[in-house]
Design goal:
The chain has 6 helices and 32 strands. It has a domain of 98 residues. The longest helix has 15 residues. Strands 1-2-3-4-5 form a 5-stranded antiparallel β-sheet, with no helix packed on it. Strands 10, 11, 14, 15 and 16 form a 5-stranded antiparallel β-sheet that branches. Helices cover 11% and strands 46% of the residues. The protein starts with a helix and ends with a helix. With 412 residues, it is mainly beta. The chain binds zinc ion. The site of zinc ion has 6 residues, from loops.
Length: 412
């Protein structure tokens, strides 16, 4: 197996695990609760809130889905606009829903502005900008510059901050030509929306380094990173690809959990975990599986506990495990059983409840839970779709999703 294939598999594992963070939306003194968007862990330009989904389609045109009605509209109120996206023949799109660039993310409405993170110029590919615009997408201006950043993902707008993860791979010379296409870096950035100052924290390095999740709470950013051990070079990786790559990854991939103090610009490595299949960050809880069992590392207490209750029902073969989703203190998980059905469970405290079993071919993956909206990926008549179900339906074992997007159609 080659490295590219590994990357695809790595991403697939992320999809499989549905590693989207289900942020326990604070219900206390936040006035903008319903405005808090949660990122999609795979599609960097898709964001969910309880009532809306914002995403860029195949032509990078911004859409807004009204979750309750399922109605999908192009994010443009210009009369007679054809919503023509960026192309060779249309380098300056006039449609306010049109975006472009190599890295596209952070297309979220927050505090009365529409934002976008990317680079809509023909400058170098290692600078990104934060664009701020009117809520209707007009009057775009660059309000912050992110230097030395290539691919942005996992963007959050919380309190006064724009927080995101990034991954870099290439090095350019002064003329903007690529002189090295494998210098892996990853990290986070924080933009203060009051003064638009950018903090980049620590630039992390390591073979195939990737950022795997971000969570923000009270001035701190918690994030997870995966990378190969220092003695795993590109050559070792290429050689390992020929053998059983899953075992190699299990033995050699490190998962680091960091905490970043925004005010003091300080980065702390909280824990490093190896010999695990997968790691998911849900709020200040980290979940992972090993060959032996299922575990939870709590960032606040620093303790790791075995999830015996999960392990009592979930299979020993972790390839059949479909990952965790969190909503407040409720922990959901699913796995493929011996009858080729996916079984869904809810663990509330020490109370374990089986919610439903669905044939594998029509099963669903939970993307995230925002308030009462449970966003899922599932197959409908052979097409992969985004859907939403109500949290009460989920908790009562009722699978009757409302379709929001049919991905195959968009690619036609
Ligand atoms: Zn338009």
């Amino acid at each position: 197996m080659n490295k590219r294939l590994f990357l695809i598999i790595f991403v697939s594992v992320l999809i499989l695990g549905a590693v989207i963070i289900s942020f326990a939306v604070k219900r206390n003194n936040h006035s903008n609760v319903s405005n808090e968007y949660v990122y999609d862990s795979v599609d960097t330009s898709c964001y969910y809130s309880e009532k809306n989904v914002l995403y860029l389609d195949g032509s990078d045109i911004l859409h807004l889905i009204d979750t309750d009605s399922g109605k999908d509209i192009v994010y443009c109120d210009k009369p007679n606009c054809m919503h023509e996206g960026y192309s060779y023949n249309n380098k300056k799109p006039s449609c306010p829903a049109a975006f472009f660039g190599l890295s596209k993310s952070g297309n979220v409405l927050y505090n009365g502005h529409l934002f976008f993170l990317g680079n809509m110029t023909d400058e170098d590919l290692i600078t990104q900008y934060l664009y701020e615009m009117d809520p209707n997408g007009e009057n775009r201006k660059k309000v912050a510059t992110l230097r030395g950043i290539q691919d942005i993902r996992y963007v959050l707008y919380r309190d006064n901050y724009v927080i995101g993860g990034y991954v870099n791979r290439v090095v350019l010379n002064d003329a903007g030509q690529i002189i090295n296409d494998n210098k892996p870096e990853a990290g986070i950035f924080v933009i203060d929306l009051e003064n638009h100052k950018v903090n980049k924290g620590t630039i992390l390095t390591g073979e195939e380094i990737n950022i795997t999740g971000i969570y923000y709470e009270d001035g701190f950013v918690y994030y997870t990173v995966a990378r190969f051990k220092d003695d795993v070079s590109e050559a070792v990786l290429a050689d390992a690809s020929e053998r059983d790559f899953e075992d190699f990854t299990y033995d050699n991939l490190l998962h680091d959990i960091y905490k970043y103090d925004i005010k003091n610009n300080e980065n702390f490595l909280l824990s490093e975990i190896d010999h695990i299949h997968n790691l998911e960050l849900h709020g200040k809880d980290v979940y992972f599986t090993t060959k032996d069992g299922y575990y939870n590392y709590n960032i606040s207490s620093g303790e790791t506990v075995s999830l015996d209750i999960v392990g009592n029902v979930a299979p020993k073969d972790k390839n059949r495990f479909r990952g965790f989703t969190k909503n407040g203190n409720d922990l959901y998980f699913s796995y493929l059983n011996d009858n080729n059905e996916v079984a869904y469970f809810l663990l509330r405290g020490t109370n374990l409840k089986e919610l439903m079993r669905i044939p594998n071919e029509s099963s669903f993956i939970m993307d995230c839970i925002c308030g009462t909206s449970v966003y899922i990926g599932y197959y409908d008549h052979g097409d992969f779709c985004l859907g939403v179900m109500n949290i009460n339906d989920l908790n009562n074992g009722i699978f009757n999703p409302r379709k929001l997007r049919r991905y195959n159609e968009e690619n036609q």
